[in-house]
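Quick log. Single chain, no ligands specified.
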Amino acid sequence: MSRFRADAPSSPASGADVAATLVWRRTPVVAVALAGAVVLAAIGLALSRPDLVAVGIPLALCFVWALLRRPAGGALEVELSAEAGDGEGVVVGRVDIDADAEWVQLAVDQAGRRTGMADVAPDEEALRSRSRLRHSGPIELLAVTARAVALDGAWTSAVTPTARLRWNAAPVLRRLQELPVAPRLTGLHGSHEGARPGQGGDFRDIHPFAPGDELRRVDWRATARLSRAPGELYVRRVNTLSDSSVVIAVDTADDLGEVVATWGTGDLEHSGTTSLDLAREAALSLATAAIETGDRVAFHELAPGGRTLRSGAGARYLARLRDVIAATGVSGDGSRFRRTPPVPQGSIVFVLSTFFDGAAAELATRWRASGHAVVAVDVLPEPDDTRLSAEQRLATRTLLAERSDILVELRRTGVEVLTWRSGDADAVLRMLIRGRHARQAAVRR
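-> predicted structure:
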């Protein structure tokens, strides 16, 4: 069972109420009752057995009763709801039924698989389900179809449309101590040392008093030492604290698991941790670390019609961003994005992808050429090829070799490459930051 389950509040992605008008039809029970009565009567008359004829009388009466007591219309309503349960990744689903019928038959699917059928009485809580999610992201938690039953099964209604409840499971949050900073800092609020004079930063210089300077900034010792004329004052200036512009771009074209044999099958039950599990975890962890530092974060889903959140900051924005990340799933048609998302000038861009076809790498290279700092985050899980044949294993090695060439080319263009597979992502980020500082110091020398 995957470790990438929700540890933050998750929520239903959409409502799941279905109401239908009951259209009744006879079941084979009516025909069986008539046939049984006729057969017993014929045998009883042929064998001069009045007891057999008497046995068939109740069946005949049931047949007549079913024809005369046909149900008149009515309605059937199915309501699905869910809430987070006790325990990590546990979700409790609930099915409520309201129907003008004796009882209701339900067929229940969970995560796309038929898990059971049940006969329930209406006007009460019909069923409760308890699921432990193996993956983050959007999932079809419950799908229920129903039909009403009357007169001991003599009449049933048409099957209702399927009521579906989708659930967006938030990924695990990994606490990061430090993030790389954008090459160009913006704004007058944040926690990063800026290059302009302002407030909140470290000492900058001693400067003659000018219009707009605050009197409390006057450095009297420097004034006594440096002033050459009466009334000449000197102020102590500090650097401003600015924020960094962070952009997170997630490539949703692929969702590849640890087990290579499941690639392209959509079998999440046996796939192990998937690339989108890691991408959602990385996106939430990076966004949380940036916003807690005071930076502004933008989010882009690299898919046709993908979600986009413009730059924002603060706790409310982080909650909204968490919901968007939890709802990020594999793109439906598998087509690639064509439009380059807008990125504020001088941002640091994290591109989260498996980097198989080169589309995300091309976009990262384009952003790097525009002057942005770009970090390519490799979210492909460690491949497990134990279930492959020799031919499939050879094809997989070829595919991975081509992917390695793409990552090498990214490094040559100045894009930092970060592998997000295990719990050492924070350590890798710190190494990346130290490497950037060392290169900047070498350039200054």
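The chain is about 30% helix and 30% strand.
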